[in-house]
């Protein structure tokens, strides 16, 4: 069977699922019906164009590019800002992937509350209309980012579960049923390209992620350093002190909990663009693009202090942890960025040899 045939079959299946959900939505919210006929019929009719989905999208485009096209087209059709939210697995966190051009980019990466209006579109698999005075994504009041209020969310369905939603943000002059119809028509056109791209992105993230901690793994760190500006950066190598004692005293589940605790502290303490990675065992690394040795030392000392001040809890008991850090930087004092890891590792070895729970800068020599 040709690729085009598979695409047509997939479009038909997606259209049928959309039609069923639309009927269910119309029954649940009668006001969603337009005056010129059933919205579900209009959505189903538009499904015949689903086979054209890839024709007007960038060839071989990555997930973010496809999602941004969807968000921008949604804004063009409705006249209000738009965003696309996705989740990797059913029941997993829902995050903002992209916003339409010109909207607040700080919203990208934000976690969507599952009981928010946007979250319900994903968890329930039905379009929702958010009142104009209520946050669409359920942001906390303390969040300083502009809180989108009011709007419409339409689910994006994958082969096994609802994978996300496209949202229109704000109050519009159109009937909600018309907004839903336009958004669902867009989703039907783009889903045959977006859903496979999402699957590829999930697989790539898994290949680059440490399964226990959720941090980047050695492979991902090496790629980031090789493709980024490692020639102007700092690298912190760090070890969890006396980790064997934790395993021997409290057991391996407690050791895993300690590693997860450290990973969480590292992730919370870093800037956007910094990369925290678990290299294996109790060994971690933090890459700081654009940082010099002084800033690398400052960050490492801050990390050391945070870990020392925040013990992890196991079975209701607090257990103190400490880390040792070695710091290197390029171009000074290490001219060759490929030597960053070896020289930072040598500094880490000295920190452990000198008593642990300390930060040591590179001497410029590898171990």
What is the mean pLDDT?
A: 83
Helix content: 40-55%
CATH architecture of the largest domain: 2-Layer Sandwich
> Could you give the count of β-strands?
13
**What percentage of the residues does DSSP assign to strands (E)?**
15-25%
Strand-pairing-aware structural class:
alpha+beta
Assembly type: single chain
N- to C-terminal distance: 58 Å
Low-pLDDT sequence parts = 1-55
Q: What is the helix/strand order?
A: HHHEEEHEEEHHEHHEEHEEEHE
What is the tally of helical segments? 10
Strand order of the largest sheet: 3-2-1-6-5-4
* Principal-axis shape: elongated
CATH superfamily membership of the largest domain, which one?
Answer: GAF domain
Largest sheet: 6 strands, antiparallel
By CATH, the topology of the largest domain is Beta-Lactamase
Estimate nothing, just give the exact number of structural domains: 2
């Amino acid at each position: 069977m040709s690729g085009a045939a598979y695409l047509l079959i997939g479009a038909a299946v997606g259209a049928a699922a959309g039609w069923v959900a639309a009927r269910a939505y119309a029954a649940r919210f009668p006001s969603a019906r337009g005056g010129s006929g059933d919205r579900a019929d209009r959505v189903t009719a538009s499904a015949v164009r689903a086979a054209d989905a890839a024709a007007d999208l960038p060839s071989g485009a990555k997930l973010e590019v496809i999602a941004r096209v969807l968000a921008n087209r949604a804004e063009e059709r409705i006249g209000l800002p738009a965003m696309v939210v996705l989740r990797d697995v059913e029941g997993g966190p829902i995050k903002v992937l992209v916003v339409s051009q010109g909207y607040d980019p700080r919203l990208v990466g934000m976690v969507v509350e599952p009981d928010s209006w946007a979250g319900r579109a994903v968890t329930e698999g039905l379009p929702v209309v958010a009142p104009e005075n209520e946050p669409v994504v359920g942001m906390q009041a303390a969040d300083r980012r502009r809180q989108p209020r009011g709007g419409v969310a339409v689910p994006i369905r994958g082969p096994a579960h609802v994978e996300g939603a496209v949202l229109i943000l704000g109050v519009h002059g159109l009937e909600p049923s018309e907004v839903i119809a336009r958004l669902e028509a867009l989703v039907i056109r783009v889903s045959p390209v977006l859903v496979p791209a999402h699957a590829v992105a999930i697989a790539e993230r898994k290949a680059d992620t440490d399964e226990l901690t959720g941090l980047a793994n050695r492979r991902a760190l090496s790629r980031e350093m090789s493709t980024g500006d490692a020639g102007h950066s700092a690298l912190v190598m760090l070890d969890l002190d006396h980790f064997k004692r934790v395993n021997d005293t409290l057991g391996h589940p407690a050791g895993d909990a300690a590693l997860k605790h450290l990973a969480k502290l590292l992730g919370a303490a870093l800037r956007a663009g910094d990369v925290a990675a678990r290299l294996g065992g109790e060994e971690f690394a933090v890459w700081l693009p654009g940082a010099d040795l002084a800033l690398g030392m400052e960050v490492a000392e801050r990390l050391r202090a945070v870990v020392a001040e925040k013990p992890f809890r196991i079975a209701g008991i607090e257990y103190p942890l400490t880390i040792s850090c070695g710091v290197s930087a390029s171009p000074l004092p290490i001219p060759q960025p490929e030597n960053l890891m070896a020289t930072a590792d040598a500094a880490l070895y000295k920190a452990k040899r000198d008593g642990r729970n300390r930060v040591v800068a590179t001497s410029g020599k590898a171990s």
